[in-house]
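Reading group handout, session on sequence-to-structure problems. Before we discuss, look at one worked example. The prompt was deliberately terse, the way you'd type it at a terminal:

> structure Ferlin B-domain domain-containing protein

The input record follows.
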Amino acid sequence: MGVSDKRGDAQSDQPPLSLSLSLSLPFVSGLPQPQNGLPDVIVWMLVGEKRVASVRIKAHTVLYTRTSSFSSGQFCGRLQTVFLKYPMDKSSEKRSAAQLRLRVWMGLATDETEFEKFTEGKFFVAAERVSL
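And the output record:
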């Protein structure tokens, strides 16, 4: 037998590539999917107890870090304009419920002195703590 014959025999003992891929798919689909590290910031407009409009702001765009000013989010502590949308509005029209000008800063409580540099006048601090 030549060298090519031995390779041919070795390949015949292995399952075809398509069979190997189909057997690995259930394993891959059972793996946990990656999760976002930070939840987004959601601003709701309330009328009484009813939520009438909202806007979602990506957390990484308003996150503050001490490492460098270039590492902080693009809109961290900066005035920005956002448009609130009606919830469950599936229409093709792009309707806005309201327009807000706001300054969002998301950071650690230990960075409170840095937060005060971004504030002007009176402000309201909303904080939610999650203990695991």
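Points for discussion. First: The first strand starts at residue 41 and ends at 47. Second: The two ends are 66 Å apart (CA to CA).
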